Amino acid sequence: MTASAFDQGERLHGLDGLRGAALLLGVVLHGTLSFFPSQIWIVGDDQTSVWASGLFFVIHLFRMASFFLIAGLFGHMMLKRRGTAGFIRNRLIRIAAPLAAFWGPVMAGIVAVLVWNASLHGLTAADAPPPPTYDWTNIPLTHLWFLWVLLWFYAALVIGRALVIRLDRAGAVGRGLDRMAGGLIGPWGPLVLGAPLALALWLEPNWIAFFGIPTPDAGLVPEASALVGFGLAFGMGVLLDRRRDLLAKIEGWTPVYLGLALGAGTTALMLSGGPTPVLTPMTDPAAKALAAAAFGVATYASMFAVVGLALRFWSGHSAVRRYLADASYWIYIVHLPLVMAAQVVVQDWAMVWPIKLAVVVVGVMAVSLASYELMVRHGMMGRWLNGRRVPWRRARPVAPVAHQAAAE
């Protein structure tokens, strides 16, 4: 797509597709956990491989940073179009309400799978450890943590934009932000963005390097390193919505970003244990600093790389990509208990782990897509989650209006 096309406000099919892909890759990501060389997951399989942990590493490196960049871009676009009141209302309906509505059923599903798996191994309630005591510091947000963190970032966006509008009457701050955004596009961008993330990771107590940015899935206050790492990506997305012309430059720099991501990512992997990852906190300050620096660069280089690839190869309209992008929100919400249940089913099968993983992913996707088509897409839940309800039968295709801001 040309720079003029970006400037004209055409629908960003590539970023819309990448947002959906980032959510759908969560199914693969969580599916690999039962095949790690050392058991870290609730369900352990009898087939393990360093390739499974390697696949997890690659996906985890770019997935959520890319998602938050796109969320920042689409969120800023929506805020400009709908105004503060309309934006807040939409985000409460589309983000806060699903978190409140689905957290309980998701937790119940996870607990049900845990009980089922324990019973298959001959364990009873008497064998279970005492239940933990939960409060605001350790409440399990599960994989829905991204909705909670999005609310933090949306609040910061609303407050920050209001302050800029009120205090920057002459537009100097806005022009400075635009120049800063332009200065971050190039091979030096991941180094500049990676520096504060590296510092935050180095300061993170009990940081397990293999997992990069810690997942803030427990407690109502996210870890500082997660706020820094994902917040920088979200903020970069906001700046890119102000400077749509920079998307073409990102696309042009894609080969360089790929090379930088490969080099820094390989270094980060080796510093975190290599083929057999070390899943314990780093204790040596010097080694921790090197690993944090490598992860800082690798995170944003890979983020820019996949954004560039999406802009390059997914810029045109695709009915399949659009459908999957629409379905991805629902699939991500419901997938984790389904993945765990599928892992329990295949854990004792006499098959190699790639086949088991494929069965888990294909099975979960089939069930999730069927439920989306039958229960969500064409009804009120479709309007709730996707911002629109698609009729069962349409006489003609619906024009591709800009719904993309409502789906992150």
UniProtKB/TrEMBL annotation:
The keyword Amino-acid biosynthesis does not apply. It comes from the Bacteria. Residues 13-372 form the Acyltransferase domain. GO terms for molecular function: acyltransferase activity, transferring groups other than amino-acyl groups. Keywords: Membrane, Transmembrane, Transmembrane helix. The keyword Transferase does not apply. The chain crosses the membrane at residues 21-44, 50-74, 95-116, 145-164, 184-203, 223-240, 252-271, 291-315, 327-346, 352-375. PANTHER family: BLR4337 PROTEIN (PTHR36927), MDO-LIKE PROTEIN (PTHR36927:SF1). This is Peptidoglycan/LPS O-acetylase OafA/YrhL. It comes from Brevundimonas bullata.
